[in-house]
């Protein structure tokens, strides 16, 4: 008999918020090739893996299969609005952007589409798939990751704000409502619904649609800045400023906090971040002041202090003040711009684990993190 084991099931002892679950897939996924293993081999291998895993990020993976009773989050997109690579960088005759050049390579983690997160958890009929944001590159993200992870339905979409990189994909939901399910509920703040009335007027008022045109069938549900429940999972809005006077929402579900678009976190929001285990935060590359400092820190370090061992002389960038303030067990940045080289930045960020006990890394498109909700 073949004992099922997938690398994605092995959870490090140091990450108690990520629970062990019974694997269901009869293959060990190593890279992209499945390898079958015997029961004795697998238990030994399991022990070796358990003993050797120290980082909370080791349980993450791309493309690995998971059991139906495992909750997880999947990063559908982790980039800025224009996407990475930028076309303008690729057509620049001087070829001055190494990150965008790398991003053209298949599987490169610098390739990033609009920020979006899929929250998956078990329900009697299978997995519930809740999508946070469907931006203008949603179709391309879904094309890349939905077949990979066997994602069939979209059980709800929760909107952070009404910029194009968060709602530009609402029209693409027609493929689901025409071919998979009758409709999709869209949870949105009133102010963003008012924007959708203009940008997607034919989806809000379907009487505008020419008879026979099969547009997305959406049910708009207005949320306030207070907890609401979607398919039995409670979401707590995390109000933030996304530029002066413009409100955006992050969301807390379980002990996971997701803030994808923000320039400032208001004081009133901090209590909602208490006891956060995984903080997913807008990356240094946007205008979020905390993140600008990280960006400066890392790139100043590279430019002026090639001796990386002396990096601690800079102290930690002010960028990490937010992370320090919240003290999550783990932080994953999202929404990275094209100047953020995945491996290079992560190499620097990983040092914070030893120096300050901060587990901070950049996420990437397709990253799957098993979680407990
Ligand atoms: Zn570029
Ligand atoms: Zn925005």
Automatic annotation (TrEMBL):
It holds the Pfam family Lactamase_B_2. The chain crosses the membrane at residues 278-299. The keyword S-adenosyl-L-methionine does not apply. The keyword Repressor does not apply. CDD domains: metallo-hydrolase-like_MBL-fold (cd16279). InterPro entries: Metallo-B-lactamas, RibonucZ/Hydroxyglut_hydro. Residues 113-313 form the Metallo-beta-lactamase domain. Coiled coil: none annotated. Keywords: Membrane, Transmembrane, Transmembrane helix. PANTHER family: HYDROLASE C777.06C-RELATED-RELATED, OS09G0363800 PROTEIN. This is Metallo-beta-lactamase domain-containing protein. It comes from Rehmannia glutinosa.
């Amino acid at each position: 008999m073949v004992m099922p084991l997938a690398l994605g099931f092995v959870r490090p002892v140091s990450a108690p918020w990520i629970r062990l679950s019974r694997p269901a897939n009869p293959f060990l996924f190593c890279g992209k090739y499945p390898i079958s293993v015997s029961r004795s081999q697998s238990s030994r291998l399991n022990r070796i893996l358990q003993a050797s895993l120290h980082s909370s990020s080791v349980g993450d993976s791309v493309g690995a299969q998971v059991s139906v009773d495992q909750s997880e989050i999947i990063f559908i997109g982790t980039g800025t609005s224009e996407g990475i690579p930028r076309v303008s960088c690729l057509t620049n005759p001087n070829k001055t952007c190494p990150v965008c050049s790398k991003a053209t390579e298949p599987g490169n983690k610098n390739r990033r589409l609009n920020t979006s997160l899929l929250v998956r958890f078990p329900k009697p009929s299978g997995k519930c798939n809740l999508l946070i944001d469907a931006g203008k590159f949603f179709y391309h993200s879904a094309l890349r990751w939905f077949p990979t992870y066997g994602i069939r339905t979209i059980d709800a979409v929760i909107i952070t704000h009404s910029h194009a990189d968060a709602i530009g994909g609402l029209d693409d939901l027609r493929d689901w409502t025409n071919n998979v399910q009758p409709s999709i509920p869209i949870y949105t703040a009133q102010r963003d619904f008012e924007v959708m009335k203009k940008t997607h007027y034919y989806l809000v008022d379907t009487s505008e649609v020419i008879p026979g045109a099969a547009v997305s069938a959406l049910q708009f549900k207005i949320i306030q800045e207070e907890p609401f429940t979607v398919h039995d999972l409670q979401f707590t809005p995390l109000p933030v400023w996304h530029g002066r006077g413009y409100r955006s929402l992050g969301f807390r579900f379980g002990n996971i906090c997701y803030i994808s678009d923000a320039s400032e976190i208001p004081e009133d929001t901090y209590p909602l971040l208490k006891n956060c285990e995984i903080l997913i935060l807008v990356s240094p590359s946007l205008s979020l002041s905390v993140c600008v400092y990280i960006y400066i820190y890392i790139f100043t370090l590279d430019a002026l202090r090639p001796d990386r061992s002396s990096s601690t002389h800079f102290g930690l960038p002010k960028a990490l003040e937010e992370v320090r303030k919240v003290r999550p067990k783990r932080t994953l940045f999202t929404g990275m711009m094209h100047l953020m080289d995945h491996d290079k930045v992560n190499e620097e960020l990983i040092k914070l684990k030893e120096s300050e006990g901060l587990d901070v890394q950049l996420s990437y498109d397709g990253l799957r993190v098993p979680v407990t909700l």
